[in-house]
Design goal:
2 copies of one chain form a homodimer. Chain A is α+β, with helices and mostly antiparallel strands and about 550 residues long. In chain A, about 45% of the residues lie in helices and about 15% in strands.
């Protein structure tokens, strides 16, 4: 029946819509007289569309106002339908037209085309919602990633990686999640549904399954302890200013049922914090157990099937408040009374409190929670930890302990989060259940926190040597000097164009953070020497030395000994 | 006129074809009864399509055979048209169905669906044409990238990075290139044309322009010396086995007219070779000057406009032979006689030979070439270098020196390549011409070469310690030991699940490449000691020590001194 319906759809569409479009536009391009008119994305009447979007937005706002006055004025479905319409309209908006100024510039550029074909500036910003890393940004990123990697090394986790492009199916399989609507997905030229990965866990699961036999035995040494630093993507049209990509430090342990796996991951997170100067006064880690919550909710009549979607809703408690959460829970088939009990249960702030508030809690799960806190204490990071029954995490696949790290000042979003997901591999087709636990730790919020706490060091450009030929005929000799110093491990910025004045060389050397300038000039060269000046040494008498060519490789000790 | 034509095209198409398709398929999915049937890429009759592809392939083969027997049997255009048809057919093929076994499995899975909904295995391979990096692959990649980065550091190049997703326009602007047809491009959900970057140079140019004032002055210290290790993507439907992604070491110098910029880049390449054990006997670097070639071709009546496309064609000389190149040159409006002269000129294997074969060569360009070879000699890598007039590189944007590194055994494709592209920034809208030179060095061919030459080291998993609790009550103490050792910089694999026998711990430790096992057991613990065994020490009497807890941080010296 599905295939029939698909065929119906396909009859209405070009067989390969993108190819047809590209081809059609190609033809247009060929027909045009100018060589510079390149095929473009479909043009839309931006002004008309903007007006439509505005009017649709007004409509929704008035509906919502009406509902506030009288809850039965409109059904949720009615409003949802209008919101969907709004989204569709926004989807038609060309990505760049949101920035009005840019749009105008482009328009202006077009008018000038007759004069200066092809001379208009290409977009100099990266694709919307993404970041370039200029060298100074890259030094900061390398510093942060260096800490991530060093912590992972000390915990004996092995690095892995996978293509940023993933099978869309991995994410569709984990149904009921917001993430599938926010994916940077597309159908490739061969008709295959792919996406820029929104998160790394499904990829990890895929790779583990790739090394698992038919009968469900992994071919790897268990436990698998892996880490990665993937760039993850999402597509959001609505919220301006939110990024569409971030990097995320991932650490996962596969094959361990014991809570000590969680303890290790939390130890890695707190080890990282300690390395960069963040203390338990700055951040805390909220911990909960979905297993325990599920048992309590089950005693309230929430089925296993309902549990994951209930968690996804309850996760929004902070954002949308108890009233909205109750509404959404009712939509999931939860009675209003039970919704109230759930929200009350979520207020527990200690394992003991939870036991008294809620009946029917899974004893094994409670025991696990207590053990987790005891082991964290033993490892030495107990002061970071607190129980919080409201933390359930937004992802449907968690099955046990979940945790979330937060900034105690309350200014920032969650710093990192994770938990146990023992059933993801079964959902993906594994014949055996494979216990898994992991976390994701983004690169953006932590950098904001470090900045806020003034814990970010400076990242200046640093160079050991600038090597400069005194004149054109000295250039080959300067190249020899550069080669020798590099062979000896120095960072050497070779001056590739002659400067008119020596002063320019020193200016340049100061700007690129060089410690030494090696000036290759005829007088010294004839004595097999190179004049080297230490730019950071105050003592004007000692800061310059003539070094024999065959001693250049000892540059560290020569200058270290002065 | 173009806008009118575009509107014509759009009338024939859904306004947003992908959105329309997705929406339509969503509806189909809602109509279906099973919760597990997720929207899929359009279904096609794979068997019928395969038959069609086969028959079309046969047709082309017979046409080609006919041409071999009688060159005028079919025109090139006729065959090309049939090849295009074949490509189109192949494009309709679902990405995964090429692998017959998989297809069958999937089919089988579908039939079993009624029994075990959603239990069929997800795709465990990465997206077609891409690579996963399991830890052992990642160690090899990190080793290679470590050399790339270390060389770049010694040359004082700064690292930069940018999103893998780029504006399609960057590549469309550089018209006349094969790359635009092979792009992994798509229109995003907001209607914006993006692509997974096929190469890094346009991104570099974009970033430089992003730091350039209206009047064309850069805000950065010149020269800019940057490097990056981007993953680059292409989309090819036809050639099975060819990868759709690779990593590419890029080094670029911006703002330098002098040939010494090229000399520095070639020095970096050869420094890398030397580090990994590749000599001038293994590889060579072919160098040519497009400036010189342009001057010679100009004297043959080839216009500046024709020059870049002529280079793109001539670059295929090795692949398609002189006859085909002549045909394609004639198609570009070059006379058959001139085509012959061009091909003859390409045979020059020294600067001197070129001067005698071809008249009208640009003297400044010839001088530059001679200087380049002299400076390479001075730096110390002259033996890698050779002139080769047939090297023009396939990219349209090169304007001066071009080079290509090849394996002397002739078994592998080009190892790296690059050159000068002084006009790319102007093409992108810069008001001033900005001299640029750079190279790209892929990660695949070099690894093949290193393997071929047996120069790849082993990359075993290595760990300092496995820390194991003797019993459950020792677990908190074992965690303390792990924390102490990690604080002291050790790589510590904490045993997160109790083993029944100590032997299992040692087995595990051996498999993960651990040097020491720290066994946390009651007898020693009561004396504030931990028993540590050195697994790599032969001497059975000396390979075990009880170390006081407060001395654990001295682990390196304790064992170093035995």
């Amino acid at each position: 029946r599905i295939e029939l319906a698909v065929n119906e759809v396909l009859k209405l569409m070009p067989e390969n819509p993108m190819a047809a479009l590209a081809e059609a536009l190609q033809r247009v391009s060929i027909n045009s007289s100018s060589e510079d008119s390149k095929p473009q994305a479909p043009q839309v009447d931006v002004a008309a569309l903007e007006a439509e979007i505005k009017s649709q937005g007004d409509k929704i706002r008035s509906m919502k106002d009406a509902v506030k006055a009288n809850p039965s004025a409109f059904a949720k479905e009615e409003i949802d339908a209008e919101v969907a319409k709004l989204k569709e309209l926004k989807g038609k908006m060309p990505a760049n037209s949101s920035d009005k100024e840019k749009g105008d510039k482009k328009e202006k550029g077009k008018k000038e085309k007759d004069d200066k074909a092809s001379k208009h500036l290409i977009p100099v910003e990266p694709v919307m919602g993404t970041r370039d890393f200029y060298p100074e940004d890259m030094r900061a990123r390398n510093w942060l990633f260096g800490h991530f990697k060093e912590v992972a090394r000390r915990f004996a986790f092995q690095e892995y990686d996978a293509p940023v492009l993933e099978h869309e199916e991995l994410y569709k399989r984990k149904a009921g999640e917001e993430i599938t609507q926010q994916m940077y997905n597309f159908v490739d030229k061969s008709g295959y549904a792919v996406t820029l990965r929104p998160e790394m866990t499904p990829t990890l699961a895929r790779m583990i399954l790739g090394r698992t036999t038919e009968s469900g035995e992994t071919k790897m040494i268990l436990p698998v302890k892996w880490f990665s630093l993937p760039q993850c993507w999402r597509f959001e049209t609505t919220q301006r200013g939110r990024k569409r990509e971030h990097y995320q430090w991932n650490m996962d342990i596969v094959g361990v049922k014991s809570i000590t796996a969680e303890v290790e991951l939390l130890a890695a997170i707190t080890t990282f914090f300690t390395r960069v100067g963040i203390t338990a006064k700055d951040v805390g880690i909220k911990v909960n157990s979905r297993k325990v919550m599920a048992s309590i909710l089950k005693s309230q009549g929430i089925s296993d099937q309902q549990f994951a979607p209930v968690c996804v809703v309850v996760d929004k408690l902070d954002k949308i408040g108890p009233e909205e959460v109750t509404k959404e829970l009712v939509q999931l088939g939860v009675s209003e009374k039970t919704a109230g009990t759930i929200i009350k249960t979520m207020s527990a702030r200690s394992v003991e409190e939870l036991s008294t508030i809620a009946e029917g809690a899974d004893q094994e799960g409670l025991e696990e929670l207590k053990e987790l806190f005891a082991q964290a204490e033993a490892y030495g990071y107990g002061d970071f930890m607190q129980f919080d029954a409201s933390v359930v995490r937004g992802l449907a696949y968690y099955t046990g302990i979940v945790f979330e790290c937060f900034d105690r000042s309350g200014e920032l979003r969650a710093i990192c989060g994770g938990g146990r997901y023992d059933r993801l591999l079964s959902l993906y087709g594994s014949k055996q259940e494979v216990p898994c636990v992991g976390f994701g730790f983004g690169d953006c919020v932590i950098m904001e926190l470090l900045q806020m706490k003034k814990l970010l060091p400076d990242f200046p450009q640093l160079t050991d040597f600038v090597v400069a030929p005194f004149s054109k005929d000295m250039l080959p000799n300067a190249l020899k000097v550069a080669a020798k110093l590099r062979e000896a491990g120095a960072t050497v910025d070779m001056q590739v164009e002659l400067k008119k004045k020596v002063g320019q060389t020193f200016d340049y050397a100061n700007r690129v953070g060089a410690q030494y300038v090696a000036l290759v000039a005829p007088d010294e060269w004839n004595k097999n020497m190179v004049r080297v000046k230490d730019l950071r040494m105050e003592d004007k008498d000692a800061n310059q030395k003539d070094i024999p060519l065959d001693k250049l490789h000892e540059w560290r000790t020569i200058f270290g000994s002065t």
